[in-house]
Amino acid sequence: MRVPTPTDLQKERAILFAILLDFSVFVPYLVTVWRIGSLAMLAELLRGGLLLLVEGLALLTLRAAHRGRMYFYDFGIGKLERMFAAAIGVLLLLAAVFILIKVMDSSESEPLPPFWVAAALGLVIYNLFTNLAPLVPLWRATRAGTSIIVLSQFRARIAKAVASVTVVVCVAIDVLFPHTEVGLAADDIGGLIGAAFMLVIGGAMISEALPDLLDRALAEPLQMKVNAALAAYFDRYEQLISVRTRKSGTIAHVEITVGFAPGRTIADVSSVTDALRQTLTAAIPDADVVVIAAPYDPETRSA
Q: If we measure between CA atoms, which residue out of 86, 99, 91 comes closest to residue 33?
């Protein structure tokens, strides 16, 4: 089993820290939302709970990759990750619709005891802290080495922090002015903003998952890097037979078959395929590159 490097452990600790902070606020948030019925807090609770599942899966995937536990799956578990992400995206869309229905059916709120006013204000401020605090370790983890999982968590945390600022403002107005039009409007606006965030995040998760589930070829910028590498070694092979690319989760898979004249030695052919593979791996981080050598056949149409 592979031993994680200090950089690997730094990335894992950054995500674990974020998960622990999110979990520490989830149960108190749930109780407070049940008691006061704030739509802004409800939207934050639903979004945070679903994204907490994504964070947990990201950590498990990262730990398995760092310890070499994916050798049973030659192409990784990218499809499973994307299927899970798509399912969470659908749940986020459904949660957004639920919040929108609640906003349309909202009525004047009842006065709250001082304890619940203080609890609501304290929780939304603490929740803002839980979204801001992990930014520094996550940023350091992204600087320590390329990791799409850690980078995506860093970007998601920024989005959650921005949304939490809105929740703090709306909940503060709602609980401090419960019998006014301003208080009711603030809660509705907070719920609508939360629903909008869920629609955007859920839609993005689904749109990112579908191409990988359907084995779509790499995006054009990555395809251009493949073409550039092939062009750089164009005079060192006789024929480009095929180029196949796809993504499995965060891993780009590139399979290239090139033809060589029968008279060329194994050492010569290996030097070309190894150099081409190393060039592509350097150009596309975290890529799985396979270069296959085949006999040159003049009757076979080049790719």
A: 99
Q: Bridge partners of 288?
A: 253
Strand order in the sheet with 239-248: 239-248, 251-260, 287-295
pLDDT the model gives residue 291: 92
The pair of three-digit structure tokens given for residue 203, joined into one six-digit string: 């839609």
The tokens of 250 are what? 């965060």
Residue 182 structure tokens? 């301003």
Structure-token match 């994204």, residue found: 51
What secondary structure does DSSP assign to the chain, as a single string?
-PPPPHHHHHHHHHHHHHHHHHHHHHHHHHHHHHHH--HHHHHHHHHHHHHHHHHHHHHHHHHHHHTTTTTT-TTTTHHHHHHHHHHHHHHHHHHHHHHHHHHHT--PPPP--HHHHHHHHHHHHHHHHHHHTTHHHHHHHHHHS--HHHHHHHHHHHHHHHHHHHHHHHHHHHHHSTTSHHHHHHHHHHHHHHHHHHHHHHHHHHHHHHHHHTTPPPPHHHHHHHHHHHHHTGGG-SEEEEEEEEEETTEEEEEEEEEE-TTS-HHHHHHHHHHHHHHHHHHSTTEEEEEEEEE--TTSPP-
* Grouped pLDDT means (10 residues each) for the chain, 303 residues: 78 86 88 82 83 82 74 63 77 85 69 76 87 85 66 74 83 77 79 84 81 73 88 89 79 88 89 91 85 80 58
pLDDT score for 149: 65
Global pTM reads 0.62
